[in-house]
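Assemble and predict.
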Amino acid sequence: MMSTYSAGLLADVGILLLGALSVYIILATGQLSLGNAGFMGIGAYMTSYLTVTAGVPVTLALVIAAMASGAIGVVVGFPALRLKGIYLAMATLGFGEMVRSLFLNLGAMGGSEGFHGMHHISLGYIWTWAAAILLLIVILERSRVWLDMRAVRDDEIAAGLVGLNATTIKVGAFGFGAAVAAISGGLFAHHHVYIEPGNFSFERSVDFVLAVILGGSTVGPGALVGAALLVMLPEYLRFLADWRFAAFGALLVAMLLVRRQGLLDRATLRAFTLRRAA
Amino acid sequence: MLIGCLFELDTRKTIHVLAQQLVNGLTLGAVYTLIALSFSLVMGILGVLNLAITELFMLGGYFGFAVIMAHLPLPLALAAGMAGSAIVAIVIEKLGYQPFRAAPVVTPMLSTLGFSIILQNVATNLWGSDPLQLTDEVLAQRYTLGGVSVSAMQLTVMGATIVLVAALAFVVQRTSMGRALRAVAENRDVARLLGVSASRVTLIAFMLSGALAGAAGVLIGLHYAAITPYIGVEIGLKAIAVMVIGGTTQIWGALIAGPLIGVLEVMTVAYGGSQVRDFVVYGFMILILLLRPQGLLGGSRSDQGQRV
């Protein structure tokens, strides 16, 4: 039997994994979002409202929130088409902060006091969602759609010239990413059974990006490695307790210097699976 | 943040209150102007967003506080904040920017994000996460001008900002170093062909930017008589919005946008409640990004596509 403590850590990994995947999906089309905590917040508040106030079962609430957040993601994705690189990063950062301040003003959901009353969900439930979505993305990575997404990332104009609809692909990725972030938020809310706007700040968006860049930004399972690293490393390296953020910051810079694609990439993944098969 | 919410709205006093808010807004705006200039120096010249500036600003505040608490004069505190942050900015340039010069623009932004995480953690461990308070009142005397109360501190903040902006304008517009900065901003390759050392210019841009952020940190620390390791995220992040609103392709847009956002923010707090403040500022930034990406002041520059 697992202790409550390690169960809590594993739950954090699952929730962070989904957040990281939400960044990864959008990044796959060459768009860096620094505001996914905003979508996470939307998911957290919406599922909590649905389960606590409207009495909706948690799975249904998660699906509804994911669809709603996905729709918002598409709405955000359209104007985001006009922006690239740093400018898109700044706009998404602004979006995330706007959502946070919106929840601060939302008196019906507690404002700065936060919101509670959710029922606690099990670790298995969190990981069912996390594993299902990771599996979905791994399968998607073997599909034609993913090739289209990579083509748009590598050269949008060339992708357009061979008949790919870059608009649909980029906006679609935003919508999908937003939906995944919302599920991460819904699970977060029902794991911690208390949420406040501060949970969905810029730092949270940075955590997602960190997990993707450290774990591997070119393959889906990289997000899993990154999320596990971010949550577990401070546990195993206790002396790091006070300095863990500095360690992660240094690790980020070092990773960008020596291995920009992150720990896991296609080559390592292939070597790993081959060795296991042999 | 106690930005003048303590005033009663009496019709007789409305004008005075408005003028009072204007003064408070301009003080905040002065600090925004300095940080936004710090961002846009690096952004306008190198096309890179240095996210560590938020924490250089916070560090400047701590450096300045150390000097004030040693009972040394105020200008020395300002100098210490500027020098300290400039030195850290040089380290960031060497480790966090130079190696990524050829990489896509998002990569150096991520590496500076790494540095901002490191700096915030270091500050938290060195000085604790509780606010550091100034024990004795510095420049507490207030002057009343036609019903509007202005503290010596507010005058100092605004005065120091004007002096620093004038000094920066002199360096950028009138010295050979400034000419090199502008040349690299215009076209890096041509500037190098003409004998400008691009790596030296890069270093100077980071250094000047760090010094401005440090100065802003000292001023905001004095203004609130307190500083925390999280002030960089609270205020520094919003300065990115100020820079965008002013215009990212040239550095002087911040001079308009800083005071504008400062006043807008204080007015929103006074008449709309403190929580809608961030919503308004970031919403304004996104509108500018979408509708007028060159910013309020930016013209239709031909090289814009290159940076976007």
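Residues 34-230 of chain B form one domain.
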